[in-house]
Design a protein that fits this description.
Layout: H1 7-13, E1 26-30, E2 33-38, H2 49-61, E3 70-75, H3 86-93, H4 98-117, E4 122-125, E5 129-131, H5 133-140, E6 143-146, E7 151-153, H6 168-176, H7 178-187, E8 190-192, H8 193-199, E9 204-205, H9 211-223, H10 227-239, H11 245-259, H12 263-273
Parallel strand pairs: 2-3, 3-4, 4-6, 5-7, 6-9
Antiparallel strand pairs: 1-2, 7-8
């Protein structure tokens, strides 16, 4: 029988988030699935300085969450996110000096970093408008479900900015290819849902009324899987961008050996022998 973990070790590294009270969006946890709902439907769910910072901090804290195995990100009112609020972000930025502007751009980039390093797979449920920073949040998610009516636009150049925002020039080409990413980042045009599915930006399309349910079903399936191993998969998918093939193979050998030490690996074997479906517990 395994010895119980030292309470002091647990206290510093396991932090339940089901009771977290979000201030600038909606947050709920049910059966291991955490749901973030951007909730300013009257403005198509734009981000503010406050919501950027709170999202960054929440994804940072998810590294230690003991009760969240998968995350769903969605928007209220038939739209995902219209990007930075024109009046609350874009307007004030015009009057800032370089140090404060860099403070802002580093904060927004930190949100993407935290999304990529949190161990939970992130499922984005994207309907309607998905623009600017909203498109970045979708891009930074692990899986994306869309609708035929969704419109995704990396529209930075349309407001006089470069397309290289929050990691777009590094991540988007890896998802849809260099040429297609270049077109979206140079032109700022909208990517329709069906085109986005063909290009591989969306894993699949859903009917608008079924989108969130399908996202939660996918998240529930991931949550029922070997969550420790899923976290390792996410880490490897992220880290191997900067590795040679030889380095990647060695890193995966080490990662897989660690996963073979988990109880879930033994559970899968015993279930196979018994011709049953394994019940994973994430350890």
């Amino acid at each position: 029988m395994n010895k119980p973990l030292d309470p002091s070790l647990l206290a510093g590294n396991h932090k339940p988030l089901a009771g977290y009270q979000a201030q600038h969006f909606l947050w709920s946890v049910q059966d291991g699935v955490g749901t973030i709902t951007l909730n300013r439907p009257e403005r198509k769910n734009p981000l503010t300085f406050d919501s950027y910072a709170e999202l960054r901090d929440l994804f940072h804290n998810l590294k230690w969450a003991s009760d969240v195995k998968t995350v769903v990100v969605t928007g209220a009112g038939g739209n995902f996110c219209s990007g930075g609020d024109v009046h609350e972000i874009i307007g004030p930025l015009i009057d800032l000096k370089a140090p404060e502007l860099l403070m802002f751009t580093r904060m927004t980039g930190e949100l993407v970093k935290m999304m990529r390093v949190c161990p939970q797979p992130i499922v984005a449920a994207i309907d309607g408008v998905c623009a600017g920073a909203g498109a970045i949040i979708a891009m930074a998610s692990d899986l994306r479900l869309g609708t035929a009516r969704s419109k995704t636009a990396f529209l930075f150049n349309r407001v006089g900015l470069a397309g290289c925002d929050m990691g777009a020039c590094a991540m988007l080409p890896r998802i849809i290819g260099q040429g297609r990413a270049s077109e979206l980042l140079y032109t700022g045009r909208s990517l329709g849902g069906e085109e986005g599915e063909r290009w591989g930006f969306f894993n699949r399309l859903c009917e608008p009324e079924a989108l969130l349910a399908e996202a939660h079903k996918l998240a529930a399936d991931l949550t029922a899987g070997p969550s420790f191993a899923n976290g390792i998969t996410k880490t490897m998918l992220h880290q191997e961008w900067a590795m040679t093939i030889e380095q990647a193979i060695e890193a995966e050998a080490q990662a897989q050996a660690i996963c073979m030490l988990t109880e879930d690996y033994g559970r899968a074997y015993r279930a196979f022998v018994a011709k049953q479906k394994p019940v994973f517990q994430g350890n």
